Amino acid sequence: MKAALRDAFLSAAVALGLFGPMVGLVTTPTDHGLTLDPRPIATAVVVALVFFGRLLVVSRRARSRQEVVGRNRALAEALTRAGRFVAPALLVVAIALPFTGSRYYVDLATLVLTYVMLGWGLNIVVGLAGLLDLGYVAFYAVGAYSYALLAQTFDLGFWTCLPLAGILAALWGVILGFPVLRLRGDYLAIVTLAFGEIIRVVITNWVSLTGGPNGIVGIPRPTLFGLSFSMDGGPGTVAGFFGIEPATIQRVIFLYYVILALALLTNWVSLRLRRQPLGRAWEALREDEVACRSLGINVTNTKLTAFATGALFGGFAGAFFATRQAFISPESFTFIESATVLAIVVLGGLGSQLGVALAAVVMIGGLELLRGLLSWLADQMGSDLFAGIAGELPLYRMLIFGLALVVMMVLRPRGLVSGRTPSVALGARKEIAAELVAQGRG
Amino acid sequence: MAYALQQLINGVTLGMIYGLIAVGYTMVYGIIGMINFAHGDIFMVGAFLSLIALLGLSILGITSVPLALALTLVFAAGLAALYGWTVERVAYRPLRGSFRLAPLISAIGMSITLQNFVQVSQGARVKPIEAVIPGGIQVMHQDGFAVQLSWMQIAIVVTTLIVLGIFTWLVTRTPLGRSMRACEQDLKMASLLGIDTDKTISLTFVIGAALAAVAGLMFLLYYGVIDFYIGFIAGVKAFTAAVLGGIGSLPGAVLGGLLIGLIEVFWSAYFSVEYKDVAAFSILAIALIFLPTGILGRAEVEKV
Q: Is the CB of A290 less than 8 angstroms away from the CB of B304?
């Protein structure tokens, strides 16, 4: 206990050093330059939090490290067994969700599904082929801008442009793929990151084509077999055709089903590809590139197809994003997006389709749900504290997100889903531990 | 000619700042083989700590510029070193020996955390300060164009050279430097021979963070304005510099930093300011394709 206390005091001292100046002294603008504004209470609260948090962690750890590990393993196994039912259950929930009629939940679910789709797309590159891509948002941006520009310049509809946007993004995937083919590991990561930044800078500065920082407004909405979702209720609209009252929720729900279908398409294609020679070559490449080469696999083509396929789905997702928002600007395509998608893939468990979906729900929907829960609690209990926290939460959104990434990696470095089903097996296909699957070096 | 000379001066100044950050990347990469994504944000934290220290000292009534700058340097470097130590302890050490992507994601998480921590605690608006060392000397006058060498630039270059000199002495002449080089060559063997590798790695982060904080102070003095987002772009460019110079090589990092600084400044001067980042990143891609180990790096031998 004494050791734990000393440890906690040391942590508090470190915290005082870390947060003393940064939290305790705020640089505030005045008429004649900046000045410092002291904030002792906030600092004291943060340091106290660190002290008690550390005390809790240390005393818990002292009690039973072995026990905790055993319990975690049992939990993981139970989760893996339950995983068989989780996927169908999630699908049923996803299909049934719009029947709740809540616009808020459908909008949130649409956002989550966009990330699920991006995650599944990136999973092909990172999870299957083992190529670390930190610039995935570039393809998302190419898809979004392709759709917006094609639709506005040539007056084409969403369904015509969707494949075009995907193909253009895939083309960019190949263009990026060629120079980076020779790079391995972290070099690949940094070049893809640089590529993502290049695309964003070009979009921001090529004002005559992309509108620069102002973005593109008035991107056309998708149609249902030629029927639009406009509010006038005429014969050419969904409402007019089916003889119902026109409402915004119809378009929202339609968009939701579009992204659900697109995400399921991504999932289906990657599951099917894994059983084909191409997918097997991807996984072989991830396990051992040298062995692949010596067995006569064309490494160049294998890598390029992985990049192109991943980019294709990124492009689809981008086109969907553009049509849903009806407005795009370079702000939506920053490195944070790439990092979020990669985090979803790694947190879910590389190569696990279900894991990616779960991670997207947790990472994107989690915070919104937390906020919803807090404001619900505040309403129930009439507590100002909970209402205050719920109101402040959006400010701390990314801070919590970053901390969650660190904590989840430290606790579960192989992701939420700890088992993998091999694509090829001799005899029965059994679930294997994620630790047995390589992460690639490319 | 005069115009080019001016750009050369500016480029070297900027390159020194990038070089200081790049040293931190290359040291960490050399020893544990991971991209310390949060390093750019440590640089940003260092710039904020410097700002707070400068403001605090002026409130306390210390008007002597050299004294104030020296105190700021020590304060910012010391506290940023604490940040570096904490980041390593919290986010990287538990993941040592883990899977390849786990430390990378953890580092990205730490980077996002630091950025948003500063945004929440210090506000999202840009922080301007007045020039601490105003004035300069006119080096050359030609065709109506005067080449300016400001005291600030001289101070930046001189400080950077002194700091790098101390750092070189530390790495090449002290027991700590010897352990660091041993860990870089072979971590497992070093630990077998009785080197406390955990401590050495911690100290590597501490030194890297202190250098980044010096760079942060230089950045604050040179541009006179900072915000919570400066760490990302500067970090990516410094990493580019480290890769260009040959990752793992300390002189390479400084050389790469100088090159990136010069490329950026000359590109802005002769082509377009908007696309200066594109130029730096394109050079990175081209360099890696034709010179995959960087300028001063060693080729990695892969054993099968």
A: yes
